[in-house]
Design goal:
By secondary structure, this protein is mostly beta strands. It has no helices and eleven strands. Strands 2, 4, 5, 6, 9, 10 and 11 form a seven-stranded mixed sheet that branches. A hairpin with a 6-residue loop joins strand 5 (about 45-50) and strand 6 (about 60).
């Protein structure tokens, strides 16, 4: 079992930055690929970013490319989502999720953290 806890959300003005953290417990992240997702009030859940179990492969969705980056620190069993140049459409609940490396399905999810971008 993997337990995931997100933190770092909050209210930020357009153009601002936030860094979300996802702390894992129960298992280390060494064997799990990690993803970030978000759900806006008006949208379905959408993929935001990915970091492989090794930390060597990362990518983000086109909608956030150039603004968001994903990273991990396996020594701390924590993954991060750095969000810069935030826009109102980035508002939503952000979730991290874990899947066994190479698997296609995310099996573990955090409870989510709210990000609100508003002036």
């Amino acid at each position: 079992q993997v337990q995931l806890v997100e933190s770092g959300g909050g209210l930020v003005q357009p153009g601002g930055s936030l860094r979300l953290s996802c702390a894992a417990s129960g298992r280390t992240l060494n064997s799990y690929d990690m993803g970030w997702f978000r759900r806006a009030p008006w949208n379905e859940r959408e993929f935001v970013g990915f970091v492989s179990w090794s930390g060597l492969l990362t990518y983000v969705a086109d909608s956030v490319k150039g603004r968001f980056t994903v990273s991990s620190d396996n020594s701390k069993s924590t993954v991060y989502l750095q969000m810069n140049s935030l826009k109102s459409e980035d508002t939503g609940v952000y979730y991290c999720a874990a899947k066994w490396r190479g698997s296609s399905q995310y099996d573990y999810w955090g409870q989510g953290t709210q990000v609100t971008v508003s002036s």
